[in-house]
Amino acid sequence: MILENQISKTQNIPSPQLKINKDYKSQQFSSLNTSHQSIDQENQYPQEGKLLNFIMELEELQQKSIFNLTLNSLSLEQQKLALTDDPNNSQLRRQLQYNKHYYQEFQSSLQYENVYLGNCLQNQKVSQQLRSRMVDWMIEVLGNYNETTTNATFFRSVSIMDYFLLKSNTQYSDQHLHLIGISSMFIATKLEDIYHIPLQDFVLRVGHNKYSTIKVKGMEQIILETLNYEITFPTILDRLYNLYYQCFSVNNDTNLQNILEASTYILKMCLHDYSMNTFHANTLAASSFFYSICDFVISKDYQHQDQIIDQFSKRITQISEINLFEFNQCQGKLKELINSFKKKYPDLQNLDKFS
């Protein structure tokens, strides 16, 4: 598991849509989910039965036509309808107010907490190649803790590492990156996971006693102080989830979840490539999401493919508030990376192994 070990050559990378062969791992976005009441609660609140029927009808409608983009913020709209039917239902009103407030906070965070991580190595002596190996190694480390960690932990780890390298006035070299990566993962798991990876695991199992507890904790403190403890900014994964829920809301359709998983896979691929980080996180998230949708639409041989793809292109750029020229430019670079990834990074195989 040591970063410096030679990694065997990767196998051919399949199409992102074909790559997804595992069950979707739900993420913690409970604030956007509609609360489903139990049978007892339905009997107690007759109007809630209407709400559940309405939800079922909408979900059935989504499964028949998954490209209906009028379902934005579906959970909030459902609860608004319930309140219209029963304005005295205090439980639903409190839930609506809470969800609305949380949703507004999340949207505000996406809009104003913009952390640009491009050119993070410009003042460092860390090579782009070793950074790519570190990203791949992080996938391996966190993949071995997949019972307690999520994709959010990985994306947070890379973001913290890149942000630290960007903000630090100290010049680091390749020999320091291993410790920086370990400490970044240690911070990320405590932030994202309910049961975080213990410090001793990072020292013994991950670092193989190369760094002591004091060393890992010391670098953790340096990272936190350098970033002024600003480590909760939205990651590129958060921006992808925002796009997904804005377009499809809380739908459990397998095809839609495969699109989300494919988009996540592509974003992991992008994090390996330093040149892709020059694009803003919104643009990268939008490009990966759009690529996965196009791949899905084309693979299913739907009628009116051009109209469907054009509709999604307009919707995604509208939600992301991104420049159309940059979006198209990123699409081109993304396709190049997907087609050349195995040739460009022949020794990095953990993306396939742990996805």
TrEMBL record:
* Alphabetized UniProt keyword annotations: Cell cycle, Cell division, Cyclin
Q: Where is each Cyclin-like domain found?
A: 136-225
User: Which SMART domains does UniProt cross-reference here?
Assistant: CYCLIN
Q: Which domain of life is it from?
A: Eukaryota
Instruction: Return the InterPro entries for the record.
Output: Cyclin, Cyclin-like_dom, Cyclin_A/B-like, Cyclin_C-dom, Cyclin_N
Q: Which PANTHER family does the record cross-reference, listed alphabetically?
A: CYCLINS
Q: Which family does it belong to?
A: Belongs to the cyclin family.
Q: What is this protein called?
A: Cyclin-like domain-containing protein
